[in-house]
Amino acid sequence: MNINDIKGIEYLSAALEPGKKINQSQEQAQGFGDVLKDALNKVNTAQLQAEQITHNFVVGGSNDVELHQVILATEKATLALQLTMQIRNKVIDAYQEIMRMQV
After folding, report:
1. Better-predicted residue by pLDDT, 28 or 95
2. Fewest C-beta in 10 Å: which of 10, 41, 70, 103?
3. Which residues does 43 contact at the CB level (< 8 Å), separation at least 6?
4. Three-state SS sequence of the chain
5. Is the pLDDT of residue 5 over 50?
């Protein structure tokens, strides 16, 4: 089995963008590493947006940010990070289980 044939992390990016459907041709075009990198970039983007919104709320200024926007952005970033960590834990568990197998 070739590691490039493993797909499935694209559902993480779909979870980060509600309403986005996964395209089969897009799924076949991207490798596992590309999908993982894309998902991690989206998690990072969500965290940076939450940080920027929080900064705008604290500082104030021309673009008024409401408290509910800060809470929503922060929770979205937190949930995305928690989902990423759980997927990482499952991948590590699967790898360790494979390494324990006798050939």
Report:
1. 95
2. 103
3. 16, 77, 80, 81, 84
4. CCHHHCCCCHHHHHHHCCCCCCCHHHHHHCCHHHHHHHHHHHHHHHHHHHHHHHHHHHHCCCCCCCHHHHHHHHHHHHHHHHHHHHHHHHHHHHHHHHHHCCC
5. no
For 77, the domain range is 3-100
Burial class (CB in 10 A: 0-12, 13-18, 19+), 77: buried
Rounded CA gap, 3 and 8, in Å?
A: 12
- The letter for the amino acid at 30 is Q
Chain-centre distance for alpha carbon 58: 26
Whether the pTM exceeds 0.85: the reply is: no
Q: Which two tokens stand for residue 20?
A: 């986005």
Contact in structure between 56 and 33 (CB atoms under 8 Å): no
